[in-house]
Every structure is written in C-alpha cells, then in structure tokens.
Amino acid sequence: MRYGFEQYNQHGYLKTPVLLWLGWFFLTRAWVVFVVAGASRQEGSNILQWVYPDHQMLYIGLGMGLPIVVSMWLIGLRKPEYSLLDKVVKHFRTVTLFVILGQIAHTLYIVKQQYWQFSWTNALTLVLLAWFCIYLVNSRYVLDCLATQKNKT
Fold first, then answer.
1. Residues pairing with 8 in the sheet
2. Which of 12, 23, 33, 60 could share a disulfide with 132, CB 3.0–4.6 Å?
C-alpha cells in the first residue's frame, strides 16, 4: 500500500492535496475578486476598477478560471457510484496544465503591454504559475489523487 489510511476519504479516493487546492484558488483569482466585489455592494465597482482597470482582462480571467471552478466543484462530488465523473476527473490535471499555460501567456501579454517593465505582481504571478506547473507535472500524489478508483465493488 502506497498511502496511509488517513489519506483516503470515506469513499475510498485519495484526498485532494492542499497544494493542489491552493494552486486552484490561485488560478481562480479573477473569480475571487468578482465574488468579493459582488459581496461588497456599494464598493464593488470600485474594487473591480482598482484590480482590473481593463474589464476585458477580468472577462478573460473569468473565462480561464471557469474550468478550474468546475473542477473544484466536481472533485467534491466523487463517489464510487459515479463512474462517469471518475472519467472526467482523471482529465483535471491536463485541464489545469492548459489553464496554467493560458494564464502564463495572458500574464506575458500584460507584461508586453507594459513595455516589459518589471512589476512585482507580474513577476510573482509568473513564478507561482511556473511553480504550480512544475508541481503538477512532478507530483505522483496528484496523479494518483485524480486517477480512477481501481477497486470498484
């Protein structure tokens, strides 16, 4: 047995690693800003204007984050009787990698629009995206977590 009993949930699947959840939350940062702006009624438009001066960047971020939001929702619905969901979940790693590559391209586009001037937010974003991409590619636990359950009864 590769993993301990405490690393499995009540349905027999490996628990989703905390670093994967944190990476997914980072990829959905446009959704987080959108929800926070919506929750703060009067100041919502000011928050959106401050974080996303160009509304197109918000819409692009929401579009790129949508597959991750759906992934986060579906990973919580996994049960042995939902075999179709297992087939979908096993592709989340690939989907996440494509979203990361899209966000790297999007961030590089923003940096190009700023005439390649250094910005801590863009630098930190690129470093975190690169780190999360390396983590997804190298992590055996993530691969096993998103794999189909083998011992169906």
1. 14
2. 23
| CA distance linking residue 67 with residue 56, whole number of Å | 18
Sign of the CA dihedral running 45, 24, 124, 61: negative
Question: What type of residue sits at position 62?
Answer: L
Give pLDDT tens digits for 70-120: 999 999 898 888 888 888 999 999 999 999 999 999 999 999 999 999 999
Helices (H), the chain: 18-27, 29-39, 44-51, 55-75, 83-89, 92-113, 120-138, 140-145
Tell me which amino acid residue 126 is.
L
How much is the pTM?
0.89
CA dihedral (128, 64, 61, 78) in degrees, to 10, reads: -80
Greatest Cα-to-Cα distance within the chain, rounded to the nearest angstrom? 59
